[in-house]
Design a protein that fits this description.
2 domains, Multidrug-efflux Transporter Regulator, Chain: A, Domain 2, MerR-type_HTH_dom, DNA-bd_dom_put_sf, mainly alpha, two-stranded antiparallel sheet, rod-shaped, 68% helix
Length: 247
């Protein structure tokens, strides 16, 4: 058989056969005087097996290992590993669909996909027109993107519906055009710091370039008086962390 004939018989392309030759998966057959390859029935059997194994999802290196074991013992081992890989993929797909369902049913738009933990947190928070609440949400999404937010979101859950917390947001909104010397700043900063649970502090990495960068960028994201409040809150929280570490 010529290459086109064996390709049609087995149901693969001539290009695929040439690739199998190139990577050493299918031995080169003999050639006629005119240079054309001549394939035997045995070549067709091997090629058919390669096709079946690749259709099962095996990589070419795995196919080569299976073909090298004439007894077929390694075939079962490789297929068992493939089955485990497919099971993991199924679990990942189910988790992605679960996250998608939360996005479709919850308050987060498709343009802002988040983790299930954050989607649940945002779903419990009432609608609000507070610019600072909206900014806080943006920061939570940013933190969620870094992959370190799941425990933080769980710790923040009790605060999501707390009217006192929303009142603090409104007071922070009122400082949008204030000076850094505004007398309302110290008291508001103290109350905001006190509202942060210890569980949140425990879940935030205390070092590393990601957290350092976020802390520095946060201050630039606020108006001057609001930034001063956030600066004081960050200092108060850092002091609490230090006190806990000294105990």
């Amino acid at each position: 058989m010529r290459i086109g004939e064996i390709a049609a018989l087995v149901g693969v392309t001539s290009r695929a056969i040439r690739h199998y030759h190139h990577v050493g998966l299918l031995p080169e057959p003999g050639r006629r005087a005119n240079g054309y390859r001549v394939y035997s029935v045995r070549d067709a059997v091997v090629l058919a097996r390669i096709r079946r194994l690749t259709e099962l999802g095996l990589a070419l290196d795995e196919v080569r290992d299976v073909l090298a074991d004439a007894a077929g013992r390694e075939l079962m081992e490789v297929l068992a590993g493939l089955d485990a890989d497919l099971a993991r993929q199924e679990n990942e797909i189910r988790e992605r669909r679960r996250r998608l369902a939360r996005l479709l049913d919850g308050p987060v738009s498709a343009e802002e996909p988040v983790s299930p933990a954050l989607a649940e947190l945002l779903g419990t928070a009432p609608a609000t027109g507070s610019p600072m609440a909206a900014k806080d949400r943006e920061h939570l999404v940013l933190l969620d993107t870094t992959g370190v937010g799941a425990e933080i979101h769980a710790a923040l859950a009790p605060l999501a519906e707390d009217p006192a917390v929303h009142a603090l947001y409104e007071r922070l909104d009122e400082l949008a055009g204030a000076a850094v010397s505004d007398p309302r700043i110290p008291a508001l900063a103290a109350e905001l710091a006190a509202a942060v649970p210890d569980e949140v502090l425990a879940a935030i990495p205390s070092d590393g370039p990601v957290m350092t960068g976020i802390g520095e960028a946060l201050l630039d994201d606020y108006a001057p008086a609001q930034a001063e409040v956030v600066r004081r809150v960050m200092a108060a929280l850092a002091a609490r962390v230090a006190e806990r570490g000294a105990e």
